[in-house]
Amino acid sequence: MKWQEVQSIYPNQFVKFEILHSEETDTQEIIDEVAVIGPIKDEDATRELLNSKDKTLVYRTSKDQIVVTIRKSIGLRRKL
């Protein structure tokens, strides 16, 4: 399902979904197709996001696009 369809079905609320298609740049992942799991209450959104794994996310439908910032893993340095 396209993000615009999700926005029309679940206006201005958090939705839990699985990513079906996205495009990556060096620093961002833009998600355009999702499989909706269901709406999430505002008070439960943070907990649901923290418990999400793999390609599952929680995002608010008031946003025009789903954009996720990609963080590169940072190695630890040791002082010799």
Written account of the structure:
The protein has 80 residues and is an alpha+beta fold. A four-stranded antiparallel beta sheet has the order 3-1-2-4. It has one domain (3-69). The chain is built from two helices and four strands, in the order αββαββ. The mean pLDDT is 91. Helices cover 16% and strands 41% of the residues.
What's a quick, concise take on this entry?
Helices cover 16% and strands 41% of the residues. With 80 residues, the protein is an alpha+beta fold.
N to C succession of SSEs: HEEHEE
Biggest sheet character: 4 strands, antiparallel
Number of domains: 1
- The parts where pLDDT drops under 50 for at least 5 residues are none
Quaternary structure state of the chains depicted: single chain
Q: Give the integer mean of the pLDDT values.
A: 91
Shape: globular
Query: How many H/I helical runs?
Result: 2
Which structural class fits the helix and strand makeup? alpha+beta
For the biggest β-sheet, the strand order reads 3-1-2-4
- What is the percent of helical residues? 10-25%
Distance between the termini: 53 Å
- What is the CA-based Rg, rounded? 15 Å
Strand content: 35-45%
Please give the number of β-strands: 4
